[in-house]
Every structure is written in structure tokens, then in C-alpha cells.
Amino acid sequence: MHEDADAPSFGSWVHVEADDGTTLYGLVSHVETGPAAANRQPRALGLSEEERRKEMPHVRELLRTTYRAQVLGYRTADGRQVRQTLPPRPAAIHAFAEPCPPEAVRALGRPYDFLRTLAHHPDEAVPADDLLVAVLGQIHAAQETEDEARAELVAAGRQLSRLLDDDHERLHAILRRVEA
Q: Residues 77, 21: contact at Cβ < 8 Å?
């Protein structure tokens, strides 16, 4: 559970340190703010954020923000290898997920094996193309130069083209939204 400002963005990479030294990497595939108690439904109060904080500060305690991340890779305990597959063990139940720094996102680049999982086994509650746009945007933004960003986007686009069975219209729609 997170405060609104602390929750990771849709399509961002997060990492969790496991007890054995392995680092698990996941892609945020769902972010939602809702009632903390299932039997209560929030409703709009017609107040600005500042007015609501001033007049009704307790409302924040009645809401919670949750997110779900799809685990797509891990770094081995010795730190030398990033594997784009499920880790041998899940994260501990009370482990804290943190946003990945740009260098970790860059390490999750080529050969883009995780795109297969996103293209063929996405989170069912999320449109797959929107998640692909978000992850490609993260990869693009993590690069140090515009030339590197373009090269990584081309490499990911090639991989994605094969995965989408040469559905060029779909691929172009995804890539256009990344560069927007």
C-alpha cells in the first residue's frame, strides 16, 4: 500500500532484493486507488485537493493505492548476470519494491525476451498495447543519449515485430505512441 505520490507509475520498472542476494525485476502493470474498506465506496466531494486536505484530512486515511507488478527478470546473486525469465524463487512476502534506476532499466534491454511475456501473456486487466507502449517509453527514457534511445527502440521494435506476427499496423501504432 502506498500514498498516491509514492506509488510507481504504470509501466515503470521496480526491483525487489531477495534474501539470497538475487534482485527481482518487475513491470508495474496496474495501479489503483480505492477504498481501504471494501464496504465503503468513495465519492467525489467537489473540493479541490487543497480544500479537501484542509477541511477533511481524514479522507486520505480511507483510501489506499495498490499496484501489481509482473515479474519479468532477475539479477543473479553474484550480480554478474541479468536473466529475462522468472526467478528461481519469489520475493519475500513483506519485501519492499523500489523504482529501478535508469542503469537497471538499461541492463534489462537486449535481447528483450521479456517482450514475449508481455505480448503473449499480459496482465488480463490491462490492454497489452498500453503496457508495451509504457515499457518501451521507459526503455527509451533510460538511455543516456538520443542515439542510444533510438537504437534501443529500433532493437525492441524488431523483436516486437516478430512477436506480433508481422502485424505492422499494430507495431506502428505502439511505436508512434512511444515517441509522442
A: yes
